[in-house]
Design a protein that fits this description.
Butyryl-CoA Dehydrogenase, subunit A, domain 3; alpha+beta; 3 domains; globular; four-stranded antiparallel β-sheet; four-stranded mixed β-sheet
Length: 418
């Protein structure tokens, strides 16, 4: 692909930059983190206001169809906007699940009534959605979902939901959730699931935040105890939940552009210049071993950018990004983790201090140190993703499958007997 902007892309980039300049504050440093001094509640309020402002200007959902309030733009335009926004100190990430995964699934599989009711409030930040997928026994293999939805027998047209989800991002603040549930255990593990949306304030829904090492609670456990769901809140066909889930996961691929913080290698270089050296060096930059680590960080960032370009090229040609984008998750998570450890090592004993006791820019290091290990688990562990790469890209023999041709009930019985 041509890495330079076309005339139309350059004009769009100028439009984005001009609007951002008029409506946001430029970052003082590439590693500035918006809202580091705000509570989660206050940060959510700021994020809603920013999303509302973006939506009013047409930047709220660039790739969405115009019929749904989007710009009808291209994935490249979405990336251009993100590149420009990265230079400004604004809230990011809060609506990634809502607008990047859940609502696009509603476009494809939801009824007209659901689309009319929920798309516009989500676009303008008035409603926040979470995705209720992972469970204690169904993480990388979502086919083992045990949360069940059963038809009610009291004359109402609906379902009763029982079970548990875990690692649900921002569930404590979400207004609605898209839940994947088992509706027919006699079918194969992927065939017997159905998707619904629920009001997170419904009777029987209990959210328990999971306190993280950094003191925050981004993730949650969610419990369902006889939660009634009207059949009108079913998304897609009965037994078609896996198709709905795949739609959301496919849309998630575009978010690869937001994985790496902008100019991360430059932040590392600045830190090396400010850090005292060892073995007679005045600064850490003078040590060739440190420069080698900086080179690795730069090369990984460039490699991830090229993978993103390959995915965008496929999208621009009307194709789906290939499985090679799975490599990006492995490389990005490990790179962010290595950066955080490297930054802490450069500070010596001071690397253990809280960001408030450090020089400006340490907030990013601290967030990556706490969060990057989780990235190697979320969305499929490193081991699962490497299996996908080996089988689907390298053509290696697949691992033996013992679940083919068996119902979910049989798989459960086998698990209990073992």
């Amino acid at each position: 692909m041509d890495f330079n902007d076309s005339a139309a892309e350059a004009a769009f980039r100028h439009q984005c930059r001009q609007w951002l300049t008029e409506n946001a504050t430029t970052k003082q440093r590439p590693d500035d983190v918006f809202g580091s001094d705000l509570s989660q509640t206050a940060l959510l309020s700021q994020a809603r206001a920013w999303q509302r402002k973006k939506a009013a200007a047409g930047f709220g959902a660039i790739t969405w169809p115009t019929a749904f309030g989007g710009m009808g733009g291209t994935p490249v335009q979405e990336v251009i906007y993100r590149q420009e926004e990265a230079a400004f100190n604004v809230p990011t990430g809060i609506f990634n699940v809502s607008l990047g995964m859940v609502i696009p699934s509603l476009f494809v599989h939801g009824s007209e009534a659901i689309i009319r009711q929920h798309v516009e409030p989500a676009l303008h930040g008035d409603s926040l959605w979470c995705q209720l997928l992972s469970e204690p026994g169904a993480g990388s293999d979502l086919g083992m979902v045990r949360t069940r939805a059963e038809r009610v027998t009291d004359g109402r047209d609906g379902w009763l939901l029982n079970g548990q989800k875990v690692w649900t991002t921002l569930a404590q603040f979400a207004d609605y959730g898209l839940v994947l549930a088992r509706t027919d255990p006699q079918q194969g593990k992927f065939a017997g699931m159905t998707s619904f949306y629920i009001d997170m304030r419904s009777p029987g829904v209990q959210v328990r935040p999971i306190r993280q090492a950094n003191g925050e609670a981004e993730f949650n456990e969610v419990f369902f105890n006889n939660v009634f769901i009207p059949d009108s809140q079913r998304i897609g066909a009965e037994g078609g939940g896996w198709k709905v889930t795949l739609t959301g996961l496919m849309n998630e691929r575009l978010s690869i552009g937001g994985v790496m913080p902008p100019k991360l290698w430059q932040s590392a270089a600045d830190l090396m210049l400010r850090s005292p050296g060892k073995h007679g060096h005045h600064t850490a930059m003078q040590d060739s071993r440190n420069r080698q680590k900086l080179s690795d960080l730069y090369l990984n960032a460039q490699g991830l950018w090229l993978l993103q370009c390959r995915g965008l090229t496929a999208l621009g040609q009307g194709k789906e990004p290939g499985a090679e984008l799975s490599i990006a998750k492995i490389v990005a998570a490990r790179t962010l983790q290595d950066f955080a450890y490297f930054a802490m090592d450069l500070q010596g004993a001071r690397g253990l201090l809280d960001a408030k006791a450090q020089a400006p820019g340490w907030e990013l290091v601290q967030r990556l140190w706490f969060g990057s290990a989780g990235m190697r688990i979320a969305g499929g562990t490193d081991e699962i993703v490497k299996n996908n790469v080996g089988e689907r890209i390298l053509g290696l023999p697949p691992e033996p499958r013992t679940d083919k041709g068996k119902s979910f009930r049989e798989l459960l019985d086998e698990g209990h007997s073992s």
